[in-house]
Protein backbone atom coordinates (compact mmCIF):
# COMPACT_ATOMS: atom_id res chain seq x y z
CA UNK A 1 0.00 0.00 0.00
CA UNK A 2 1.49 3.34 -1.04
CA UNK A 3 0.90 6.46 0.98
CA UNK A 4 1.58 9.81 -0.73
CA UNK A 5 1.57 12.86 1.49
CA UNK A 6 0.26 15.61 -0.82
CA UNK A 7 -0.28 18.17 1.93
CA UNK A 8 0.84 17.87 5.56
CA UNK A 9 0.10 21.26 7.13
CA UNK A 10 -2.62 22.43 9.48
CA UNK A 11 -5.17 25.27 9.31
CA UNK A 12 -3.73 27.26 6.40
CA UNK A 13 -1.03 26.73 3.78
CA UNK A 14 2.55 27.86 4.28
CA UNK A 15 5.48 28.03 1.89
CA UNK A 16 6.60 24.59 3.18
CA UNK A 17 3.32 22.73 3.61
CA UNK A 18 -0.03 22.78 1.89
CA UNK A 19 -3.18 21.88 3.81
CA UNK A 20 -4.06 18.23 4.26
CA UNK A 21 -4.43 15.50 1.71
CA UNK A 22 -3.00 11.99 1.64
CA UNK A 23 -3.46 9.49 -1.19
CA UNK A 24 -3.52 5.79 -0.28
CA UNK A 25 -3.10 3.44 -3.23
CA UNK A 26 -3.34 -0.34 -3.20
CA UNK A 27 -3.41 -2.35 -6.38
CA UNK A 28 -5.75 -0.40 -8.67
CA UNK A 29 -7.60 1.53 -5.98
CA UNK A 30 -6.86 4.99 -4.61
CA UNK A 31 -8.55 6.65 -1.65
CA UNK A 32 -7.85 10.31 -0.92
CA UNK A 33 -7.85 11.08 2.81
CA UNK A 34 -9.09 14.68 3.09
CA UNK A 35 -8.71 17.16 0.24
CA UNK A 36 -7.61 20.64 1.30
CA UNK A 37 -7.52 23.62 -1.07
CA UNK A 38 -4.79 23.22 -3.68
CA UNK A 39 -4.67 19.40 -3.53
CA UNK A 40 -5.07 19.06 -7.31
CA UNK A 41 -1.92 21.14 -7.83
CA UNK A 42 -0.02 19.09 -5.24
CA UNK A 43 -0.68 16.00 -7.38
CA UNK A 44 1.37 17.42 -10.27
CA UNK A 45 4.63 15.48 -10.41
CA UNK A 46 3.39 12.95 -7.84
CA UNK A 47 2.37 9.39 -8.73
CA UNK A 48 -1.26 10.27 -7.90
CA UNK A 49 -3.53 10.84 -10.88
CA UNK A 50 -6.78 12.76 -10.31
CA UNK A 51 -8.51 10.46 -12.79
CA UNK A 52 -7.58 7.32 -10.81
CA UNK A 53 -9.05 8.42 -7.48
CA UNK A 54 -11.95 6.18 -6.52
CA UNK A 55 -13.06 7.90 -3.34
CA UNK A 56 -12.39 10.96 -1.21
CA UNK A 57 -13.02 10.47 2.50
CA UNK A 58 -13.36 13.63 4.54
CA UNK A 59 -12.69 13.62 8.29
CA UNK A 60 -14.59 16.82 9.18
CA UNK A 61 -15.87 19.97 7.58
CA UNK A 62 -13.23 22.55 8.46
CA UNK A 63 -12.17 24.15 5.20
CA UNK A 64 -8.52 23.08 5.32
CA UNK A 65 -9.64 19.44 4.98
CA UNK A 66 -12.24 19.84 2.30
CA UNK A 67 -12.04 22.93 0.08
CA UNK A 68 -9.97 21.25 -2.64
CA UNK A 69 -12.93 19.10 -3.70
CA UNK A 70 -14.83 21.41 -6.10
CA UNK A 71 -11.70 22.37 -8.06
CA UNK A 72 -10.55 18.76 -8.26
CA UNK A 73 -14.00 17.67 -9.46
CA UNK A 74 -14.03 20.43 -12.12
CA UNK A 75 -10.55 19.44 -13.36
CA UNK A 76 -11.44 15.73 -13.41
CA UNK A 77 -14.43 16.58 -15.56
CA UNK A 78 -12.53 18.93 -17.91
CA UNK A 79 -10.02 16.10 -18.37
CA UNK A 80 -12.70 13.64 -19.45
CA UNK A 81 -13.58 11.65 -16.33
CA UNK A 82 -16.82 9.71 -16.81
CA UNK A 83 -16.82 7.11 -14.02
CA UNK A 84 -18.43 8.01 -10.69
CA UNK A 85 -16.50 9.50 -7.78
CA UNK A 86 -17.41 8.52 -4.23
CA UNK A 87 -17.16 11.19 -1.51
CA UNK A 88 -17.68 10.10 2.11
CA UNK A 89 -17.70 12.13 5.28
CA UNK A 90 -19.61 13.04 8.43
CA UNK A 91 -23.38 13.49 8.42
CA UNK A 92 -23.39 16.93 6.80
CA UNK A 93 -21.10 15.93 3.92
CA UNK A 94 -24.01 15.67 1.50
CA UNK A 95 -25.14 19.26 2.03
CA UNK A 96 -21.53 20.45 2.02
CA UNK A 97 -20.61 18.81 -1.26
CA UNK A 98 -23.84 20.06 -2.80
CA UNK A 99 -23.14 23.62 -1.59
CA UNK A 100 -19.57 23.60 -2.70
CA UNK A 101 -20.26 22.14 -6.15
CA UNK A 102 -23.23 24.45 -6.72
CA UNK A 103 -21.19 27.57 -5.89
CA UNK A 104 -19.91 27.56 -9.49
CA UNK A 105 -21.93 27.25 -12.68
CA UNK A 106 -19.88 24.21 -13.67
CA UNK A 107 -21.57 20.79 -13.54
CA UNK A 108 -19.36 17.68 -13.57
CA UNK A 109 -19.73 15.18 -16.39
CA UNK A 110 -19.84 12.23 -13.97
CA UNK A 111 -21.82 11.09 -10.95
CA UNK A 112 -20.68 12.25 -7.51
CA UNK A 113 -21.84 9.55 -5.08
CA UNK A 114 -21.93 11.05 -1.58
CA UNK A 115 -22.02 8.79 1.51
CA UNK A 116 -22.72 10.02 5.01
CA UNK A 117 -20.76 8.07 7.64
CA UNK A 118 -21.05 7.64 11.37
CA UNK A 119 -19.07 5.82 14.03
CA UNK A 120 -18.61 2.16 13.06
CA UNK A 121 -19.81 2.49 9.44
CA UNK A 122 -18.05 0.61 6.67
CA UNK A 123 -17.54 1.46 3.02
CA UNK A 124 -16.22 -0.68 0.20
CA UNK A 125 -13.95 1.03 -2.34
CA UNK A 126 -12.91 -1.54 -4.92
CA UNK A 127 -10.74 -4.03 -3.07
CA UNK A 128 -10.40 -1.75 -0.03
CA UNK A 129 -12.56 -1.62 3.08
CA UNK A 130 -12.91 1.71 4.88
CA UNK A 131 -14.15 1.88 8.47
CA UNK A 132 -14.61 4.94 10.62
CA UNK A 133 -14.76 5.96 14.26
CA UNK A 134 -15.85 9.17 15.96
CA UNK A 135 -13.13 11.41 17.38
CA UNK A 136 -13.16 14.60 19.47
CA UNK A 137 -12.67 17.93 17.68
CA UNK A 138 -15.61 20.03 18.81
CA UNK A 139 -17.60 19.27 15.66
CA UNK A 140 -18.59 15.94 14.13
CA UNK A 141 -15.25 14.39 13.17
CA UNK A 142 -14.16 10.94 12.04
CA UNK A 143 -11.01 8.83 11.89
CA UNK A 144 -10.74 6.25 9.09
CA UNK A 145 -9.12 2.85 8.79
CA UNK A 146 -8.39 1.52 5.30
CA UNK A 147 -7.85 -2.24 5.03
CA UNK A 148 -6.51 -3.97 1.96
CA UNK A 149 -7.74 -7.51 1.30
CA UNK A 150 -5.83 -10.43 2.86
CA UNK A 151 -2.72 -11.42 0.95
CA UNK A 152 -2.17 -15.02 -0.21
CA UNK A 153 -0.02 -17.22 2.04
CA UNK A 154 3.61 -17.96 1.19
CA UNK A 155 4.07 -20.58 -1.59
CA UNK A 156 6.52 -23.26 -0.45
CA UNK A 157 8.54 -23.58 -3.63
CA UNK A 158 10.98 -26.15 -2.25
CA UNK A 159 8.18 -28.44 -1.10
CA UNK A 160 6.38 -28.16 -4.45
CA UNK A 161 9.59 -29.15 -6.24
CA UNK A 162 10.30 -32.04 -3.85
CA UNK A 163 6.79 -33.40 -4.48
CA UNK A 164 7.53 -33.33 -8.21
CA UNK A 165 4.88 -30.74 -9.12
CA UNK A 166 6.12 -29.04 -12.30
CA UNK A 167 6.31 -25.24 -12.30
CA UNK A 168 3.62 -23.63 -14.46
CA UNK A 169 -0.14 -23.93 -14.53
CA UNK A 170 -0.29 -26.35 -11.58
CA UNK A 171 1.60 -23.93 -9.29
CA UNK A 172 -0.82 -21.22 -10.34
CA UNK A 173 -3.83 -23.43 -9.57
CA UNK A 174 -2.47 -24.15 -6.08
CA UNK A 175 -1.86 -20.45 -5.45
CA UNK A 176 -5.45 -19.77 -6.48
CA UNK A 177 -6.65 -22.32 -3.86
CA UNK A 178 -7.42 -25.18 -6.24
CA UNK A 179 -6.67 -28.86 -5.49
CA UNK A 180 -4.61 -30.32 -8.36
CA UNK A 181 -4.55 -33.79 -9.80
CA UNK A 182 -1.91 -35.00 -12.22
CA UNK A 183 0.16 -37.99 -13.21
CA UNK A 184 3.90 -37.54 -12.63
CA UNK A 185 6.08 -40.40 -13.91
CA UNK A 186 3.18 -42.85 -13.81
CA UNK A 187 2.16 -41.89 -10.27
CA UNK A 188 -1.22 -40.27 -9.69
CA UNK A 189 -0.81 -37.14 -7.63
CA UNK A 190 -3.44 -35.17 -5.69
CA UNK A 191 -2.25 -32.08 -3.84
CA UNK A 192 -4.40 -29.73 -1.77
CA UNK A 193 -3.36 -26.08 -1.73
CA UNK A 194 -2.85 -26.01 2.07
CA UNK A 195 -0.05 -28.59 1.62
CA UNK A 196 2.02 -26.04 -0.34
CA UNK A 197 0.58 -22.61 0.41
CA UNK A 198 0.73 -21.11 3.91
CA UNK A 199 -2.27 -19.46 5.59
CA UNK A 200 -3.52 -16.20 4.07
CA UNK A 201 -1.73 -13.20 5.55
CA UNK A 202 -3.72 -10.23 6.82
CA UNK A 203 -4.01 -7.34 4.40
CA UNK A 204 -2.15 -4.10 5.03
CA UNK A 205 -3.99 -1.44 6.96
CA UNK A 206 -3.58 2.29 7.50
CA UNK A 207 -5.45 4.54 9.96
CA UNK A 208 -5.84 8.31 9.63
CA UNK A 209 -6.95 10.25 12.70
CA UNK A 210 -8.18 13.51 11.14
CA UNK A 211 -8.13 16.42 13.63
CA UNK A 212 -8.70 15.32 17.20
CA UNK A 213 -7.78 15.50 20.83
CA UNK A 214 -5.91 12.29 21.72
CA UNK A 215 -8.74 9.79 21.79
CA UNK A 216 -9.17 6.12 22.70
CA UNK A 217 -11.30 5.53 19.63
CA UNK A 218 -8.26 6.16 17.41
CA UNK A 219 -6.21 3.71 19.44
CA UNK A 220 -8.99 1.12 19.18
CA UNK A 221 -9.40 1.67 15.42
CA UNK A 222 -5.62 1.40 14.98
CA UNK A 223 -5.15 -1.89 16.82
CA UNK A 224 -2.29 -3.68 15.02
CA UNK A 225 -2.56 -1.44 11.94
CA UNK A 226 0.54 -1.26 9.78
CA UNK A 227 0.59 2.53 9.89
CA UNK A 228 -1.11 5.29 11.82
CA UNK A 229 -1.22 8.76 10.27
CA UNK A 230 -2.05 10.98 13.24
CA UNK A 231 -2.47 14.72 13.51
CA UNK A 232 0.23 16.48 15.55
CA UNK A 233 -0.63 20.12 15.28
CA UNK A 234 1.62 21.15 18.18
CA UNK A 235 4.78 20.17 20.03
CA UNK A 236 5.08 20.10 23.82
CA UNK A 237 5.85 23.84 23.85
CA UNK A 238 2.25 24.56 22.86
CA UNK A 239 0.47 21.76 24.71
CA UNK A 240 -1.94 24.37 26.13
CA UNK A 241 -2.97 25.39 22.59
CA UNK A 242 -3.51 21.73 21.69
CA UNK A 243 -6.04 21.55 24.55
CA UNK A 244 -7.67 24.88 23.70
CA UNK A 245 -8.15 24.05 20.01
CA UNK A 246 -8.92 20.33 20.48
CA UNK A 247 -5.77 19.06 18.77
CA UNK A 248 -2.97 16.63 19.69
CA UNK A 249 0.71 17.09 20.35
CA UNK A 250 3.31 14.90 18.64
CA UNK A 251 3.95 13.14 21.95
CA UNK A 252 0.26 12.38 22.44
CA UNK A 253 0.00 11.00 18.89
CA UNK A 254 2.97 8.74 19.69
CA UNK A 255 1.24 7.54 22.85
CA UNK A 256 -1.82 6.52 20.80
CA UNK A 257 0.44 4.73 18.29
CA UNK A 258 2.24 2.92 21.08
CA UNK A 259 -1.00 1.90 22.81
CA UNK A 260 -2.39 0.55 19.52
CA UNK A 261 0.79 -1.32 18.62
CA UNK A 262 0.93 0.03 15.07
CA UNK A 263 3.80 -0.69 12.71
CA UNK A 264 4.73 2.90 12.01
CA UNK A 265 3.62 6.43 12.79
CA UNK A 266 3.37 9.44 10.48
CA UNK A 267 2.65 12.88 11.94
CA UNK A 268 0.71 15.45 9.90
CA UNK A 269 -1.39 18.66 10.28
CA UNK A 270 1.71 20.48 11.49
CA UNK A 271 0.89 24.00 12.70
CA UNK A 272 1.93 26.87 10.38
CA UNK A 273 4.01 28.25 13.29
CA UNK A 274 6.53 25.39 12.90
CA UNK A 275 8.22 26.33 9.66
CA UNK A 276 11.77 26.32 11.06
CA UNK A 277 13.47 22.90 10.70
CA UNK A 278 14.63 22.90 14.34
CA UNK A 279 11.02 23.13 15.51
CA UNK A 280 10.16 20.09 13.37
CA UNK A 281 13.18 18.25 14.79
CA UNK A 282 12.05 19.07 18.31
CA UNK A 283 8.58 17.72 17.55
CA UNK A 284 9.98 14.53 16.04
CA UNK A 285 12.23 13.94 19.04
CA UNK A 286 9.29 14.32 21.43
CA UNK A 287 7.32 11.73 19.46
CA UNK A 288 10.31 9.39 19.20
CA UNK A 289 10.78 9.35 22.97
CA UNK A 290 7.48 7.45 23.04
CA UNK A 291 7.38 5.80 19.59
CA UNK A 292 10.85 5.34 18.09
CA UNK A 293 10.91 5.88 14.34
CA UNK A 294 8.03 8.37 14.15
CA UNK A 295 8.10 10.16 10.79
CA UNK A 296 7.09 13.73 9.94
CA UNK A 297 6.71 13.55 6.15
CA UNK A 298 7.23 16.54 3.90
CA UNK A 299 4.74 17.48 1.19
CA UNK A 300 5.29 15.24 -1.81
CA UNK A 301 6.89 12.32 0.05
CA UNK A 302 5.53 8.85 -0.69
CA UNK A 303 6.07 5.70 1.35
CA UNK A 304 5.47 2.06 0.59
CA UNK A 305 3.67 0.80 3.68
CA UNK A 306 4.81 -2.73 4.47
CA UNK A 307 4.25 -5.11 7.34
CA UNK A 308 6.03 -3.14 10.08
CA UNK A 309 8.45 -1.57 7.65
CA UNK A 310 8.23 1.43 5.38
CA UNK A 311 10.37 2.36 2.50
CA UNK A 312 10.23 5.44 0.37
CA UNK A 313 9.01 4.94 -3.18
CA UNK A 314 11.57 4.85 -5.94
CA UNK A 315 12.43 8.38 -7.08
CA UNK A 316 10.85 7.72 -10.50
CA UNK A 317 7.60 7.06 -8.63
CA UNK A 318 7.73 10.58 -7.28
CA UNK A 319 9.00 9.72 -3.81
CA UNK A 320 10.75 12.80 -2.55
CA UNK A 321 13.37 11.34 -0.26
CA UNK A 322 14.43 8.87 2.34
CA UNK A 323 12.43 7.79 5.37
CA UNK A 324 13.42 10.14 8.13
CA UNK A 325 13.45 8.61 11.58
CA UNK A 326 14.76 9.58 15.01
CA UNK A 327 18.32 10.73 15.35
CA UNK B 1 -0.67 51.35 -9.08
CA UNK B 2 0.97 47.97 -8.47
CA UNK B 3 -0.25 44.89 -10.25
CA UNK B 4 0.81 41.50 -8.80
CA UNK B 5 0.09 38.46 -10.92
CA UNK B 6 -0.56 35.75 -8.32
CA UNK B 7 -1.94 33.23 -10.81
CA UNK B 8 -1.87 33.50 -14.60
CA UNK B 9 -3.11 30.13 -15.88
CA UNK B 10 -6.42 29.04 -17.37
CA UNK B 11 -8.87 26.27 -16.48
CA UNK B 12 -6.72 24.20 -14.06
CA UNK B 13 -3.37 24.67 -12.33
CA UNK B 14 -0.11 23.46 -13.83
CA UNK B 15 3.37 23.22 -12.37
CA UNK B 16 4.18 26.63 -13.93
CA UNK B 17 0.94 28.58 -13.42
CA UNK B 18 -1.78 28.59 -10.81
CA UNK B 19 -5.32 29.59 -11.78
CA UNK B 20 -6.21 33.25 -11.98
CA UNK B 21 -5.79 35.98 -9.44
CA UNK B 22 -4.31 39.46 -9.78
CA UNK B 23 -3.89 41.95 -6.94
CA UNK B 24 -4.13 45.65 -7.80
CA UNK B 25 -2.83 47.97 -5.10
CA UNK B 26 -2.98 51.77 -5.06
CA UNK B 27 -2.11 53.78 -2.01
CA UNK B 28 -3.73 51.87 0.86
CA UNK B 29 -6.32 49.99 -1.20
CA UNK B 30 -6.08 46.52 -2.72
CA UNK B 31 -8.57 44.92 -5.08
CA UNK B 32 -8.20 41.24 -5.96
CA UNK B 33 -9.27 40.49 -9.54
CA UNK B 34 -10.63 36.91 -9.45
CA UNK B 35 -9.52 34.41 -6.82
CA UNK B 36 -8.84 30.91 -8.12
CA UNK B 37 -8.16 27.92 -5.88
CA UNK B 38 -4.79 28.26 -4.13
CA UNK B 39 -4.63 32.06 -4.32
CA UNK B 40 -3.94 32.40 -0.59
CA UNK B 41 -0.82 30.24 -0.97
CA UNK B 42 0.32 32.26 -3.99
CA UNK B 43 0.36 35.35 -1.76
CA UNK B 44 3.09 33.87 0.44
CA UNK B 45 6.30 35.73 -0.34
CA UNK B 46 4.45 38.30 -2.47
CA UNK B 47 3.81 41.89 -1.35
CA UNK B 48 0.07 41.09 -1.12
CA UNK B 49 -1.27 40.57 2.40
CA UNK B 50 -4.60 38.73 2.75
CA UNK B 51 -5.49 41.06 5.61
CA UNK B 52 -5.09 44.19 3.44
CA UNK B 53 -7.46 43.12 0.66
CA UNK B 54 -10.45 45.45 0.55
CA UNK B 55 -12.46 43.77 -2.18
CA UNK B 56 -12.49 40.70 -4.40
CA UNK B 57 -14.13 41.23 -7.79
CA UNK B 58 -15.10 38.07 -9.64
CA UNK B 59 -15.52 38.09 -13.42
CA UNK B 60 -17.66 34.94 -13.73
CA UNK B 61 -18.51 31.81 -11.84
CA UNK B 62 -16.30 29.18 -13.41
CA UNK B 63 -14.40 27.53 -10.57
CA UNK B 64 -10.90 28.52 -11.72
CA UNK B 65 -11.80 32.19 -11.10
CA UNK B 66 -13.55 31.84 -7.79
CA UNK B 67 -12.80 28.72 -5.71
CA UNK B 68 -10.01 30.34 -3.68
CA UNK B 69 -12.50 32.56 -1.84
CA UNK B 70 -13.70 30.29 1.00
CA UNK B 71 -10.17 29.24 2.01
CA UNK B 72 -8.93 32.83 1.86
CA UNK B 73 -11.87 34.00 3.98
CA UNK B 74 -11.22 31.23 6.54
CA UNK B 75 -7.52 32.13 6.76
CA UNK B 76 -8.28 35.86 7.04
CA UNK B 77 -10.55 35.08 9.96
CA UNK B 78 -8.12 32.67 11.67
CA UNK B 79 -5.52 35.45 11.41
CA UNK B 80 -7.73 37.95 13.19
CA UNK B 81 -9.40 39.99 10.44
CA UNK B 82 -12.31 42.00 11.80
CA UNK B 83 -13.04 44.60 9.11
CA UNK B 84 -15.54 43.76 6.37
CA UNK B 85 -14.54 42.24 3.04
CA UNK B 86 -16.39 43.24 -0.10
CA UNK B 87 -16.97 40.58 -2.77
CA UNK B 88 -18.47 41.71 -6.10
CA UNK B 89 -19.44 39.69 -9.14
CA UNK B 90 -22.19 38.84 -11.62
CA UNK B 91 -25.79 38.48 -10.54
CA UNK B 92 -25.44 35.03 -8.98
CA UNK B 93 -22.42 35.97 -6.86
CA UNK B 94 -24.51 36.28 -3.72
CA UNK B 95 -25.83 32.73 -3.90
CA UNK B 96 -22.40 31.44 -4.90
CA UNK B 97 -20.56 33.06 -2.02
CA UNK B 98 -23.24 31.88 0.37
CA UNK B 99 -23.00 28.31 -0.98
CA UNK B 100 -19.27 28.25 -0.92
CA UNK B 101 -18.93 29.69 2.59
CA UNK B 102 -21.66 27.45 3.97
CA UNK B 103 -20.00 24.30 2.61
CA UNK B 104 -17.77 24.27 5.70
CA UNK B 105 -18.80 24.60 9.33
CA UNK B 106 -16.47 27.59 9.70
CA UNK B 107 -18.05 31.05 10.04
CA UNK B 108 -15.86 34.11 9.43
CA UNK B 109 -15.37 36.59 12.24
CA UNK B 110 -16.06 39.57 9.93
CA UNK B 111 -18.78 40.77 7.60
CA UNK B 112 -18.69 39.59 3.97
CA UNK B 113 -20.41 42.32 1.97
CA UNK B 114 -21.52 40.84 -1.36
CA UNK B 115 -22.42 43.13 -4.30
CA UNK B 116 -24.12 41.94 -7.46
CA UNK B 117 -22.93 43.83 -10.52
CA UNK B 118 -24.25 44.29 -14.03
CA UNK B 119 -23.06 46.08 -17.16
CA UNK B 120 -22.25 49.71 -16.34
CA UNK B 121 -22.40 49.41 -12.55
CA UNK B 122 -19.89 51.22 -10.37
CA UNK B 123 -18.39 50.33 -7.04
CA UNK B 124 -16.27 52.45 -4.70
CA UNK B 125 -13.43 50.66 -2.90
CA UNK B 126 -11.64 53.21 -0.72
CA UNK B 127 -10.02 55.66 -3.12
CA UNK B 128 -10.61 53.38 -6.13
CA UNK B 129 -13.56 53.31 -8.51
CA UNK B 130 -14.47 50.00 -10.11
CA UNK B 131 -16.68 49.88 -13.22
CA UNK B 132 -17.80 46.81 -15.14
CA UNK B 133 -18.99 45.84 -18.60
CA UNK B 134 -20.59 42.65 -19.91
CA UNK B 135 -18.45 40.37 -22.04
CA UNK B 136 -19.14 37.18 -24.01
CA UNK B 137 -18.24 33.83 -22.44
CA UNK B 138 -21.44 31.81 -22.68
CA UNK B 139 -22.41 32.59 -19.10
CA UNK B 140 -22.86 35.94 -17.37
CA UNK B 141 -19.35 37.39 -17.39
CA UNK B 142 -17.91 40.82 -16.63
CA UNK B 143 -14.80 42.86 -17.37
CA UNK B 144 -13.68 45.40 -14.76
CA UNK B 145 -11.97 48.79 -14.92
CA UNK B 146 -10.24 50.05 -11.80
CA UNK B 147 -9.58 53.82 -11.70
CA UNK B 148 -7.36 55.50 -9.15
CA UNK B 149 -8.29 59.08 -8.17
CA UNK B 150 -6.85 61.99 -10.21
CA UNK B 151 -3.31 62.91 -9.24
CA UNK B 152 -2.43 66.52 -8.28
CA UNK B 153 -0.96 68.69 -11.04
CA UNK B 154 2.76 69.39 -11.27
CA UNK B 155 4.01 72.01 -8.78
CA UNK B 156 6.10 74.65 -10.57
CA UNK B 157 8.92 74.92 -8.08
CA UNK B 158 10.94 77.42 -10.12
CA UNK B 159 7.97 79.77 -10.48
CA UNK B 160 7.18 79.55 -6.76
CA UNK B 161 10.78 80.49 -5.95
CA UNK B 162 10.84 83.32 -8.49
CA UNK B 163 7.68 84.77 -6.91
CA UNK B 164 9.43 84.71 -3.54
CA UNK B 165 7.09 82.22 -1.91
CA UNK B 166 9.11 80.54 0.83
CA UNK B 167 9.22 76.73 0.83
CA UNK B 168 7.23 75.18 3.66
CA UNK B 169 3.63 75.60 4.81
CA UNK B 170 2.71 77.99 1.96
CA UNK B 171 3.84 75.52 -0.72
CA UNK B 172 1.77 72.85 0.99
CA UNK B 173 -1.28 75.14 1.06
CA UNK B 174 -0.94 75.81 -2.68
CA UNK B 175 -0.62 72.08 -3.41
CA UNK B 176 -3.79 71.50 -1.42
CA UNK B 177 -5.60 74.05 -3.62
CA UNK B 178 -5.63 76.95 -1.17
CA UNK B 179 -5.04 80.59 -2.15
CA UNK B 180 -2.26 82.01 0.00
CA UNK B 181 -1.73 85.51 1.35
CA UNK B 182 1.52 86.64 2.92
CA UNK B 183 3.84 89.58 3.28
CA UNK B 184 7.25 89.03 1.72
CA UNK B 185 9.76 91.87 2.29
CA UNK B 186 7.01 94.38 2.99
CA UNK B 187 5.01 93.42 -0.13
CA UNK B 188 1.57 91.89 0.26
CA UNK B 189 1.35 88.75 -1.81
CA UNK B 190 -1.76 86.85 -2.94
CA UNK B 191 -1.19 83.70 -5.02
CA UNK B 192 -3.88 81.42 -6.38
CA UNK B 193 -2.97 77.70 -6.67
CA UNK B 194 -3.55 77.61 -10.43
CA UNK B 195 -0.67 80.11 -10.81
CA UNK B 196 1.81 77.51 -9.49
CA UNK B 197 0.15 74.09 -9.73
CA UNK B 198 -0.72 72.56 -13.11
CA UNK B 199 -4.08 70.95 -13.87
CA UNK B 200 -4.89 67.72 -12.03
CA UNK B 201 -3.65 64.68 -13.94
CA UNK B 202 -5.96 61.73 -14.59
CA UNK B 203 -5.57 58.83 -12.18
CA UNK B 204 -4.06 55.55 -13.31
CA UNK B 205 -6.43 52.93 -14.63
CA UNK B 206 -6.28 49.19 -15.26
CA UNK B 207 -8.81 47.02 -17.09
CA UNK B 208 -9.18 43.25 -16.66
CA UNK B 209 -11.17 41.34 -19.28
CA UNK B 210 -11.96 38.10 -17.43
CA UNK B 211 -12.70 35.20 -19.83
CA UNK B 212 -14.23 36.35 -23.09
CA UNK B 213 -14.37 36.19 -26.83
CA UNK B 214 -12.74 39.33 -28.23
CA UNK B 215 -15.43 41.91 -27.49
CA UNK B 216 -15.99 45.58 -28.26
CA UNK B 217 -17.17 46.22 -24.72
CA UNK B 218 -13.65 45.49 -23.44
CA UNK B 219 -12.19 47.90 -25.99
CA UNK B 220 -14.72 50.56 -24.94
CA UNK B 221 -14.07 50.00 -21.22
CA UNK B 222 -10.31 50.17 -21.86
CA UNK B 223 -10.32 53.47 -23.77
CA UNK B 224 -7.02 55.18 -22.83
CA UNK B 225 -6.45 52.92 -19.82
CA UNK B 226 -2.88 52.66 -18.64
CA UNK B 227 -2.95 48.89 -18.73
CA UNK B 228 -5.20 46.17 -20.08
CA UNK B 229 -4.95 42.69 -18.57
CA UNK B 230 -6.63 40.51 -21.17
CA UNK B 231 -7.21 36.78 -21.32
CA UNK B 232 -5.25 34.97 -24.02
CA UNK B 233 -6.07 31.33 -23.52
CA UNK B 234 -4.76 30.29 -26.92
CA UNK B 235 -2.22 31.19 -29.59
CA UNK B 236 -3.00 31.28 -33.32
CA UNK B 237 -2.37 27.54 -33.55
CA UNK B 238 -5.55 26.89 -31.58
CA UNK B 239 -7.72 29.73 -32.88
CA UNK B 240 -10.50 27.18 -33.53
CA UNK B 241 -10.51 26.17 -29.84
CA UNK B 242 -10.67 29.84 -28.86
CA UNK B 243 -13.91 30.10 -30.89
CA UNK B 244 -15.31 26.80 -29.59
CA UNK B 245 -14.71 27.62 -25.93
CA UNK B 246 -15.48 31.36 -26.17
CA UNK B 247 -11.96 32.55 -25.41
CA UNK B 248 -9.48 34.91 -27.09
CA UNK B 249 -6.14 34.37 -28.76
CA UNK B 250 -3.11 36.48 -27.86
CA UNK B 251 -3.39 38.26 -31.22
CA UNK B 252 -7.06 39.11 -30.64
CA UNK B 253 -6.27 40.48 -27.18
CA UNK B 254 -3.58 42.65 -28.79
CA UNK B 255 -6.13 43.93 -31.34
CA UNK B 256 -8.44 45.00 -28.50
CA UNK B 257 -5.52 46.71 -26.74
CA UNK B 258 -4.54 48.50 -29.92
CA UNK B 259 -8.11 49.61 -30.66
CA UNK B 260 -8.48 50.97 -27.12
CA UNK B 261 -5.12 52.76 -27.16
CA UNK B 262 -4.03 51.40 -23.80
CA UNK B 263 -0.59 52.02 -22.35
CA UNK B 264 0.39 48.41 -21.92
CA UNK B 265 -0.97 44.93 -22.35
CA UNK B 266 -0.63 41.91 -20.06
CA UNK B 267 -1.82 38.49 -21.24
CA UNK B 268 -3.16 35.95 -18.74
CA UNK B 269 -5.35 32.79 -18.51
CA UNK B 270 -2.77 30.90 -20.53
CA UNK B 271 -3.98 27.42 -21.46
CA UNK B 272 -2.39 24.51 -19.51
CA UNK B 273 -1.25 23.12 -22.89
CA UNK B 274 1.34 25.90 -23.24
CA UNK B 275 3.85 24.90 -20.59
CA UNK B 276 6.86 24.84 -22.93
CA UNK B 277 8.68 28.21 -23.06
CA UNK B 278 8.77 28.21 -26.88
CA UNK B 279 4.97 28.07 -26.99
CA UNK B 280 4.82 31.10 -24.71
CA UNK B 281 7.37 32.88 -26.93
CA UNK B 282 5.26 32.11 -29.98
CA UNK B 283 2.18 33.53 -28.29
CA UNK B 284 4.03 36.67 -27.23
CA UNK B 285 5.36 37.23 -30.75
CA UNK B 286 1.86 36.94 -32.21
CA UNK B 287 0.59 39.56 -29.76
CA UNK B 288 3.57 41.81 -30.37
CA UNK B 289 2.97 41.89 -34.11
CA UNK B 290 -0.18 43.87 -33.26
CA UNK B 291 0.74 45.49 -29.94
CA UNK B 292 4.50 45.84 -29.47
CA UNK B 293 5.61 45.29 -25.89
CA UNK B 294 2.84 42.88 -24.90
CA UNK B 295 3.80 41.07 -21.69
CA UNK B 296 2.98 37.52 -20.57
CA UNK B 297 3.70 37.70 -16.84
CA UNK B 298 4.75 34.67 -14.82
CA UNK B 299 3.11 33.78 -11.53
CA UNK B 300 4.52 36.00 -8.79
CA UNK B 301 5.61 38.88 -11.05
CA UNK B 302 4.61 42.37 -9.94
CA UNK B 303 4.62 45.52 -12.08
CA UNK B 304 4.35 49.16 -11.17
CA UNK B 305 1.78 50.49 -13.64
CA UNK B 306 2.72 53.99 -14.73
CA UNK B 307 1.40 56.43 -17.30
CA UNK B 308 2.33 54.43 -20.42
CA UNK B 309 5.29 52.82 -18.77
CA UNK B 310 5.68 49.79 -16.54
CA UNK B 311 8.52 48.76 -14.41
CA UNK B 312 8.86 45.63 -12.33
CA UNK B 313 8.71 46.20 -8.60
CA UNK B 314 11.92 46.23 -6.64
CA UNK B 315 13.00 42.66 -5.85
CA UNK B 316 12.47 43.27 -2.13
CA UNK B 317 8.83 44.01 -2.98
CA UNK B 318 8.50 40.53 -4.39
CA UNK B 319 8.87 41.43 -8.07
CA UNK B 320 10.11 38.30 -9.77
CA UNK B 321 12.04 39.70 -12.69
CA UNK B 322 12.37 42.16 -15.50
CA UNK B 323 9.62 43.34 -17.81
CA UNK B 324 9.67 40.95 -20.73
CA UNK B 325 8.78 42.48 -24.06
CA UNK B 326 9.06 41.51 -27.71
CA UNK B 327 12.33 40.18 -28.98
CATH overall fold name of the largest domain in chain A: Metallo-beta-lactamase, Chain A
With strands numbered from the N-terminus, the spatial order across the biggest sheet of chain A is: 6-5-4-3-2-1-15-16
| Fraction of residues in β-strands of chain A | 15-25%
The first-level CATH class name of the largest domain in chain A: Alpha Beta
Number of domains of chain A: 2
Number of strands of chain A: 16
Biggest β-sheet of chain A, characterized?
A: 8 strands, mixed
Write the CATH architecture name of the largest domain in chain A: 4-Layer Sandwich
Poorly predicted ranges of chain A? 314-327
CATH homologous superfamily annotation of the largest domain in chain A: Ribonuclease Z/Hydroxyacylglutathione hydrolase-like
Mean of residue pLDDT of chain A?
Answer: 91
Span of the ends, CA to CA of chain A:
26 Å
* Number of contiguous helices of chain A: 10
What is Rg of chain A? Answer: 22 Å
* Shape, principal axes of CA atoms of chain A: globular
Order of helices and strands of chain A: EEEHEHEHEEEEHHEEHEHEHHEHEE
Most extensive chain contact? A-B, 38 and 39 residues
Helix content range of the residues of chain A, please? 10-25%
